């Protein structure tokens, strides 16, 4: 149908829509009949079918309101059609996505709800591709939130099973490709191109393909793809956010701030606001950094995180420790606060307290052969530091050696800034300052300008495991180099963005200081 010509004037929009809709309907009649879909729908309540079509459309758009709408429809459909596996799977998917990407609902309860519906879907249809798509999404958010490698393994396995069961399911193909884009970008590209063959307008697959292109060091092509997605789907904030992340990776923080600001503007995606705040801190714009999170102050999850970030940047680790410990009280505390306790305790030299949290958070770090995910390389470096400080040098060394092994550069693939910084920490803790500083040099040369890391908001030169470098002239020189470049970008950003009323005096005073 894309090859058809519709010769009409611009004021005949409805006529064009009608003509295209009729064409689509006619084209799909034979296709659906050939695929057996007509037989599957025979005898089904037409209203239930209509609702499921709407829910699927809402789920596809991935916006917060659309996902909430899909979740509500699927909940209704579970009552209307309790034996429909796809309905249970759709509810689980929407619930999982909302929980992590939009921080909606209690984490533990949402996980239980999604798990129950996935189990029901697989009980009804053990070969439901959609159930495995939902399972993959749930495992992915558990990996992000809890950081356990078993969830990383389970996510990939679930997505692969979904593709195996439905090789032309564009969502399964795009989610698998997206998830393996960093560790296996070449393989990811093959899945994503297949997804786009089935559905050329799959915005998730387009974004994921751009991510794979970044991993294979084709940054210009990736940037073009993100920009094309922004033009096609201006309301889809993920493309703006991921384009901003690419700008950070390339060392263009001023451009990143512009794109993060656009992604954060609807106030639906907390990740965009957190990333914007981080960029502002790196550009030494603390007032703007705090302003970026102001709209989330009453949010039950993001509000406390914003307060914790403010404490970290200010160096208030006693306050952070007390604040995090208070939020761990209760029967089902959010696992993110275990990380808050560990970070604060390690910064205060209370290593036994930090170790206690690590045992709960990352038991794999204490195994004879510690398992390190390249996605969590910096967390592994932090764990090794704490374990070494509590007297177990041998285990710390094993963790650091495993870290270096899984982050070893590979021909044809781009080494991310985060992995270079993890390797810097590993080498320094192993006593090899020269190789550590070489990693930092390589990172800066390829665009590293993020002295405040996004995960912990702690400046590189304040991190406890790098204390031995603080007076090193070469290290100090590279930190000053990054600061000078960031100062230039701050000036460029301010020149493009006139200060709002009341901010001019603040910026002038800061520049004079």
Distance between the termini: 62 Å
Which word captures the global form? Answer: globular
- Percent of residues in helices: over 70%
Q: What is the H/E order?
A: HHHHHHHHHHHHHHHHHHHHHHHHHH
Mean pLDDT: 89
Proportion of beta-strand residues: under 5%
Biggest sheet record: none
Spans of at least 5 consecutive residues with low confidence? 1-5, 30-39, 500-513
What radius of gyration results from the CA coordinates?
24 Å
Beta-strand segment tally: 0
Count up the helices.
26
Estimated structural class: mainly alpha
What is shown here, in short?
The chain is an all-alpha fold and 513 residues long. It is built from 26 helices and no strands.
Description:
With 513 residues, this protein is mainly alpha-helical. It has helices spanning 13-34, 37-41, 46-61, 64-80, 85-101, 107-124, 129-146, 149-165, 170-179, 185-198, 203-215, 219-232, 237-249, 253-264, 270-282, 286-294, 302-314, 317-327, 336-347, 351-361, 377-389, 393-406, 417-429, 433-445, 473-496, 504-512. Helices cover 70% and strands 0% of the residues.
Key terms:
513 residues; mainly alpha
Task: Furnish the topology, listing elements before pairings.
Blueprint (H helix, E strand, L loop, with lengths): L12 H22 L2 H5 L4 H16 L2 H17 L4 H17 L5 H18 L4 H18 L2 H17 L4 H10 L5 H14 L4 H13 L3 H14 L4 H13 L3 H12 L5 H13 L3 H9 L7 H13 L2 H11 L8 H12 L3 H11 L15 H13 L3 H14 L10 H13 L3 H13 L27 H24 L7 H9 L1
